[in-house]
Amino acid sequence: MIRQAFIFPLLALAACVPPEPVDVSKLDFNPTYGAVNTRLLAGELVSISVVMQGARNNDDVIAFNDCAAAQYALIRGAGFVRRVRNDVDKKGPNWLGDGVYTLSDAHPGGVHTIDAEVAAGNCSASNIPMV
Q1: What is the number of domains present in the chain?
Q2: Cβ partners under 8 Å of residue 2, min gap 6
Q3: In terms of pLDDT, which residue wins out, 8 or 69?
Q4: pLDDT by residue (tens digit) across 94-131?
Q5: Is 71 helix (H, G, I), strand (E, B) or coil?
Q6: Is residue 98 assigned to a domain?
Q7: Which of 25, 58, 96, 116 is buried deepest, with most CB atoms within 10 A?
Q8: Which one, of 90, 101, 92, lies nearest residue 65 by Cα?
Q9: Which strands, in side-by-side order, build the sheet including 94-104?
Q10: Is 38 within the bounds of a domain?
């Protein structure tokens, strides 16, 4: 009787303790990067599509898309990329990224501006392939 009186309140108290938050950065992240397709739309407007598997969320797919855009800008002699839009979709194990970017020599302004040289260095350091 005394044991039950002692154990039940402890069980009730244990049920009130929130679980430890999961640190997403410590989870295994072993993505497989697939195809990159680039298409010059008009002038300095380019469409870039990527495919990958093992993404943790949309941000991983957008990072792959941005890396491809940065490298494409460097190949075309542009120093900056501005993200116009990015769409992410998941079909089975494949994550599909579709983005439209503008290329420019000078900083184009805007919220989603990417310095192509800096981004390419960061992508290499993060093992994200580029075009």
Answers
A1: 1
A2: none
A3: 69
A4: 999 999 999 998 887 777 899 999 999 999 999 998 87
A5: helix
A6: yes
A7: 116
A8: 101
A9: 32-42, 45-53, 94-104, 80-91, 113-115
A10: yes
Q: What is the pLDDT of residues 36-95, one digit of tens each?
A: 999 999 989 999 999 999 999 999 999 999 999 999 999 999 999 999 999 999 999 999
Phi, psi angles (nearest 5°) of residue 17: -80, 125
**19 within a domain of the structure (yes/no):** no
Q: State the DSSP H helix or E strand holding residue 107, giving kind and residue range, or none if neither.
A: none
23: DSSP letter:
-
Q: Which domain holds residue 119?
A: 30-125
Sign of CA dihedral 112, 117, 118, 121: positive
Q: Which two tokens stand for residue 52?
A: 């990958």
